[in-house]
Design brief:
globular, 3 domains, seven-stranded mixed beta sheet, alpha/beta, single chain, Aspartate Aminotransferase, domain 1
């Protein structure tokens, strides 16, 4: 039986530092009320999609310095603070949010963040949160199955795709050069990747001590996709591959590499095959788009972000390996207060992080509410909406679309105007939030259709507005 730790005659609120449960309940209601209004206004497009006042002005509006020095926030002043805070951000639920690959989070994932904020059960060590760690095990097992890895596969959730890519390359290095952890990197190692690969992969080579000059660019077509027929040229290089990377999909264009062609080449030549599926692996859940990931099961490692197309809040990124032993070999660590005894349920040996949030709960609750089919339908709808934008834009005078989209990312240009000026103008207005990218030496506007509220009316309004100001 649990011991009753309450002292005789103890007051309700207890010693300094304990939660005031009545106050917590009150401000939780305020938070729910404010967030509900925020999401509702955002989804209906009743407010600007973003504001970006200068930091000094925002600091004054939110009275940050006084609160930091003096404290004293109450439920009533918190209400005012939160209203200002929410009004001055970027609204990812807004139909005009079309910029970056950050999820418009579903409410079950938001509940998970609320739960973690109160319980704070890290999942890297089982004894610190058995329920959270078990949920992560279940979510990873599901992801491994969807990728096509067998029962011998391994996985872990990390705080973002950059850490996920770094972890995957650590596993690849352990397979290629198992003594590198203790002895340092052999001088002949190289990472083979298309120029369109995410910047975090080059950054990882610097962190690993391989040096960014070790990245060997693969031959690609005019749109940045790996030219499988020219892959043998990469073996003519005098450096030994730590891994060969393919995009699923490329961050800039949303286009997929030929995973089967690349995977078969890597298998035939004994090269570690890494698939960066941070954004596009979620197409595995769509019957219509699963074909884009044909061959992903040939990979040795895959990363897959839940905080993009699986609609969790940031951050929750999976590192998945075809063989669990490869992921277990990524790190070799010591620490008598953590690493001892029977730790078969601990995840700390697979991550950079010693403390890890309850990330699996976010994805689990989204799945529990929406189901695998519901998340797949969301992916299919966003991909279809992006394709519809391409159809509308290419019929408009002055608009140029360099390719037919494969995902929810579309690149386009309008006329000969400075595309960056068009983007800045819309951001200053708060009318639309777009990003941009370089393609073939030219600057293109770029949309990522990620908010469920984005529909054909939004797309038409965007085209009209660009034509008006462009």
């Amino acid at each position: 039986m649990p011991h009753n730790f309450r002292s005789h005659g103890e007051e309700r609120h207890g010693p300094v530092g304990r939660w005031d449960i009545e106050e917590f309940t009150k401000v939780a209601e305020v938070t729910t009320e404010q967030l509900a209004a925020y999401v509702d206004d955002s989804q209906r497009g009743l407010v600007p999609v973003l504001r970006r006042r200068p930091p000094k002005e925002l600091e004054v509006r939110m009275d940050l310095r006084r609160y930091i020095r003096e404290g004293g926030m109450t439920a009533d002043s918190y209400r005012d603070f939160l209203r200002t805070y929410l009004a001055e951000g970027t609204r990812l639920h807004h139909p005009a949010y079309l910029a970056h690959q950050d999820a418009s989070p579903d409410f079950p994932a938001a509940l998970a963040d609320f739960i973690h904020g109160a319980t704070n059960n890290p999942t890297a060590i089982y004894e610190m949160g058995a329920a959270g760690t078990t949920v992560e095990f279940a979510v990873l097992e599901w992801m491994l199955e969807r990728v096509g890895f067998g029962a011998d596969g391994g996985g872990v959730l990390t705080h973002g795709g950059s850490l996920a890519n770094l972890t995957a390359l650590l596993a690849a290095r352990a397979a290629v050069a198992p003594d590198a952890w203790a002895d340092g990197n052999p001088a002949d190692l190289a990472l083979f990747a298309p120029p369109s690969a995410h910047y975090s992969l080059t950054r990882a080579t610097g962190i690993l001590g391989l040096g960014t000059n070790c990245v060997v660019p693969l031959a690609v077509d005019d749109l940045g996709r790996i030219d499988v027929a020219r892959l043998p040229e990469s073996l003519e290089h005098d450096r030994r591959p730590i891994a060969l990377v393919a995009n699923a999909c490329a961050t800039g264009t949303g286009l997929y590499d030929d995973l089967r062609g690349v995977g078969e080449f890597c298998r035939d030549h004994g090269i570690w095959f890494h698939v960066d599926g941070a954004h596009g692996a979620s197409a595995l859940l769509s019957d219509e788009h699963r074909r884009l990931l044909d061959g992903i099961e040939l990979a040795d490692s895959v990363i897959w972000d839940a905080h993009k197309m699986l609609r969790t809040s940031s951050l929750a990124a999976a590192v998945l390996t075809r063989r669990h032993a490869d992921l277990d070999a990524a790190f070799q660590q010591e620490g008598s207060y953590l690493f001892y005894g029977d730790q078969r349920f601990d995840l700390i040996g697979r991550t950079v992080e010693g403390t890890k949030a309850e990330q699996g709960l976010k994805l689990f609750l989204n799945l529990a509410w929406r189901g695998e089919r519901g998340l797949g339908d969301y992916v299919a709808r966003q991909y279809a909406t992006a394709h519809r934008f391409w159809e509308l834009a290419r019929k408009r005078p002055g608009f140029e679309c360099p390719y037919e989209p494969e995902s929810n990312i579309v690149c386009f240009r309008y006329g000969t105007a400075d595309q960056a000026v068009i983007r800045e103008r819309m951001m200053d207005e708060g009318s639309f939030h777009l990003s941009s990218t370089d393609l073939g030496g030219n600057r293109y506007l770029r949309i990522t259709v990620i908010a469920p509220a984005t529909d054909e009316r939004t797309l038409t309004a965007l085209l009209d507005h660009i034509a008006e100001i462009g």
